[in-house]
């Protein structure tokens, strides 16, 4: 793998001819724009920053907002986010709007060096000049922080920035995205996206027009500033999104980002309203709570205008693909008795109703001791407050055990608000073998799939060592 990466990197360097490996310097400004700039424009910029989740990537753990230093783990090593406060020495205080726009569109810093695409400029390039200018005004209104990010730790030769010129030649399409006609709207889509009353009151033509406007806005946000594909699209060998598999799911920071094209294939198919609620609150009563890298995204989207989040949901719901005919995998079955119990009664009131095979006995014991008080059908959390059964959860029904194991290891931190969702971590409580037993039992107990094939202590150990969050 390393040899292949080195070879491809050399080819890229030759293809680029290093002619575009360093761009011209844009003259610095003597001082950042006044923080008393157009308050309305700064407010618009705050909207863009919330949609782009800028604060999460550009804020280190326990660091100052937007001061950078957060480690971003990639298959090629660690990249540290930069300081985007208006500090004149370590931030972007001496950047003009032209320099900021070039970074967003072309991935080029003010001094001419190329930025790594961990900064998602392949998406930001699709933003309008107006949105980029608004974001610039917002960033320049932040408090300046003097902070220098640690040096990146990348494998050779990918630590040689001029190679990015070749990457850009292959994968960067510069400039705002081209308009695409909205798909034909089904009546159900109109009711979901616009509301039954609004769709009926506006008539078919008006509803079509309103849906098209909302869809276009959603597409612009998803493909641009929100950069959803950066996480939810699989990457190729060189870390670029696979163009033939948009939104088909990806992996980052030790978590699987699920496919956004299969929301209608969930045990309870997602609706437009449920997706809006999830994106704005981090919780959908029919599906569960956000965790891992998605949790801070929902916290940022909570600060975005509701109409924008609604448009994002409209566009994402239009991407759904029909489910293929399911096939039976014998390795995913447990035993005839257990499979019957799971399919006919996926959440029995009394856990003793389920007689797990010997392979799941340890997991059942662990579940009863550590999980049943919250996740059994008679637990207060399950009977009050519209909490969904684990049977509805994406992690339990996923093909990969990664997210379920991540949840068990790290839990969900308490954020001190009434709307927070909390789960205690078990990384220091259970061994790798116990986590594997618990995960396999939970999947057999709450889904129709049976235990994950191959999930054992060694797999948990590998997941435990991966960096999930800095």
Automatic annotation (TrEMBL):
Residues that hold heme c 2 according to the record: 228, 231-232
Co-factor requirement: heme c
Binding-site positions, heme c 3: 371, 374-375
Keyword set, alphabetical order: Cell membrane, Heme, Iron, Membrane, Metal-binding, Oxidoreductase, Repeat, Signal
Gene Ontology MF annotations: electron transfer activity; heme binding; iron ion binding; oxidoreductase activity, acting on CH-OH group of donors
Signal sequence bounds: 1-21
Binding of heme c 1, residues: 54, 57-58
Cytochrome c domain sequence ranges: 40-143, 197-320, 358-446
Cofactor descriptive note: Binds 3 heme c groups covalently per subunit.
EC nos: 1.17.2.1
UniProt subcellular location: Cell membrane
InterPro entries xrefs: Cyt_c-like_dom, Cyt_c-like_dom_sf, Cytochrome_c-type_DH, Membr-bd_ADH_cyt_c
GO CC annotation terms, alphabetical: plasma membrane
Superkingdom as given in the UniProt entry: Bacteria
Protein name, per record: Nicotinate dehydrogenase subunit B
